[in-house]
Design brief:
about 80 residues, TBC1 domain family member 31, mainly beta, about 0% helix
């Protein structure tokens, strides 16, 4: 399983090599969202939703940021 740290990214790739599900749980990527403040902390996503095709994922955090993850196109 790969990990992706959003940090201050506004765009980029979700994974850098072909994803393959973890052994039994089916997880293909772990998305981490850290702040770059003086005292860094991990931000949790407040709401997450897939589109009707399951190709895009939208996520909103506690600071009001909205992220769109294009799983098919490997973009955020």
């Amino acid at each position: 399983m790969q990990s992706t740290d959003l940090g201050n990214k506004e765009s980029g790739k979700i994974w850098h090599r072909k994803p393959s599900p973890a052994t039994r749980d089916g997880i293909i990527v772990n998305i981490i969202h850290n702040t770059s403040d003086y005292l860094p902390k991990v931000l949790r996503f407040l709401n997450v939703a897939f589109d009707s095709s399951g190709d895009c994922l939208l996520a909103g955090d506690h600071q009001g940021n909205i992220y769109v993850f294009d799983l098919y196109g490997n973009r955020l």
